[in-house]
Hints:
Helices cover 38% and strands 19% of the residues. With 347 residues, it is α/β, with parallel strands linked by helices. The chain folds into two domains: 6-42 and 249-344, Rossmann fold (3-Layer(aba) Sandwich), CATH 3.40.50.10350; 51-241, Alpha-Beta Complex (Glycerate kinase, domain 2), CATH 3.90.1510.10. The strands form three sheets. The chain has a six-stranded mixed β-sheet with strand order 3-4-5-6-7-8. Strands 2-1-9-11-13 form a five-stranded parallel β-sheet, sandwiched between helices. Helix 1 (20-33) runs parallel beside helix 13, helix 3 (113-124) runs parallel beside helix 4 and helix 6 (189-210) packs parallel to helix 7. The longest helix is centred in the middle third of the chain and has 22 residues, at 189-210.
Amino acid sequence: MQPVPRLLASPDKxxxxxxxxxxxxxxxxxxxxxxxxxxxxxxxxxGEGFLDCFAGRxxxxxxxVQDALGRPVIASWLLLDDGRTAxxxxxxxxxxxxxxxxxxNDPLAASSAGAGQLLAAAVAEGARRLLVGxxxxxxxxxxxxxxxxxxxxxxxxRLAGVEVVVACDVTTxxxxxxxxxxPQKGATPAQVALLERRLQRMAAELAAMAGFDLSDLxxxxxxxxxxxxxxxxxxxxxxxxxxxxxxxxxxxxxxxxDLVITGEGLLDDQSFAGKAVGGVAGLAVAAGVRVVAVVGxxxxxxxxxxxxxxxxxxxxxxxxxxxDDAAASLTEAVAILLADQRSDAPD
Length: 347
């Protein structure tokens, strides 16, 4: 009897259509229908979807915090089964999507206070290690709001004795945060200039807190400078995908598979530069496991590394269906892929 082949479904989110869990489920459905042993494991590079990667690994907690515009929002976070590690996705509190997108945002007023409130809640419940995913924020306040919220815990934000690991998906420096990200958050050129001046003042405050100038630290500009504020409190910045891969033992899971399918909404020049899809693909290639990226669409200029196969939903089913019926399109694409693999197998 032939052994049942193992499929690892390990996609990132398909922005605007599917979160990582839904994408993994769509891939998994096709795999099971084709008789594969399937493991679904959503991944993230530290941005939106970070919390989903840890689904089923702890107890979900909810906390009432402020969104970026100061309105109450119920944000979920996770206390892992070890009882001391909390997983926090700051976009659940201060995400751009929470305020209705760039058109509904107030770039000057947007505050990171809700992110600080989430960290404070986790510490209050006994967490002594915080895995914090940044990305998708509506803010460019240099972390001022978060620091004010954490001040309620005492001097220096009362994270003494608490290990904070910040999962960062960009290398942007603190003083570049406004110019790089604020236009995506609704800021006009004049507002970008004002936000840049605010960040310059904030950089001096953070240097005094940290005892060193962190303004040139790669990644410190993530989430509008929130990463830099956390560093001033003693946090460590780590590449987001690396945090997820280590926590999920992803390298071992990839090596145990016969086929790895990853994916995201748009494969572009960033996908293989520290992002989740590139990270999964790299692990598979290193392990000698076949890997296919089934994606919404492909940027014409992207360079796909050797050993990585790509399937575009737009090419397969058309742009409209790929967006409006993303889950079914993804399942169909994987079903075709697995059927082709079966037909290519030796007798």
